[in-house]
Amino acid sequence: MNKEVEVKAQTVYKKKLFKKIIFIVFLLLIILISIIYLFLYIVYQGGRFTVNLDKNLSDRKNVFLSEDGKMSGKTRELAAGTIDYMDNISIKWLPQNIDTEATGAHNGDNYIAYTFYVINAGKETVHYWYEVDIDDTIRKVDEAVRIMIVRNGNRIVYAKKSPITGKAEEGTKEFTSKSIAVLEQRKNFKPKEKDRFTIVVWIEGDDPECKNELLGGEIKMHMDITEEHINKSKR
């Protein structure tokens, strides 16, 4: 009888121990998933597109960013609003006045649009570079992404070059590199001048690479405005 009781006691103990282990493993998995979710939320939802100004330009040259073009709102960093879902559209569907319809975030159905100003409040004529970097992509969504930059009314659409022809997609200027979508220099930016920028991002439905495989894809980008261009590929 004692052996039978002892065996039963050990069985009960093992069952309780097994349940405790399962509970601890489950709890650790919940914590791990929560950490991963929080990280992804911060990375992909916490301002999908930011504009950053070189400290040298603001401190030494008195060049600033402003969402509304006024000095009262001067800053060195701006963050555009994001949208929860982006389906493919055609460039023809974008508003014709997209660069003048509003300032700040003015997103539409299936596209991100953001307008801001670069202001020269100093006494010197300066040159600056503006660069759009691709920080990360999921499901190669960058294959069909379009980035339109309108500076003072002049529009240029940028896209990854066609993997089929090896050339720029029709009506676009190809990305500078795999990680740099846009790299341009603004010369002779005179005192009291304001440059109005509108950035528009969408997935081009007419792109041959716009396929079902891109569903669920995401892209994270930011824009840097600097006095000098640093070749990051050589770092």
Comma- or semicolon-separated keywords:
2 helices, 5-stranded mixed β-sheet, 2 domains, single chain, 235 residues, alpha+beta
Description:
The protein starts with a helix and ends in a 9-residue tail after the last strand. It is 21% helix and 34% strand. The protein is an alpha+beta fold and 235 residues long. The strands form two sheets. Strands 2, 4, 5, 7, 8, 9 and 11 form a seven-stranded mixed sheet that branches. Strands 3-1-12-6-10 form a five-stranded mixed sheet. It has helices at residues 2-45, 55-59; strands spanning 49-53, 63-66, 77-80, 104-105, 112-120, 126-138, 145-151, 154-159, 173-174, 180-189, 194-203, 218-226. The protein folds into two domains: 1-45; 48-229, no CATH class. It has two helices and twelve strands.
Secondary structure layout:
Elements: H1 2-45, E1 49-53, H2 55-59, E2 63-66, E3 77-80, E4 104-105, E5 112-120, E6 126-138, E7 145-151, E8 154-159, E9 173-174, E10 180-189, E11 194-203, E12 218-226
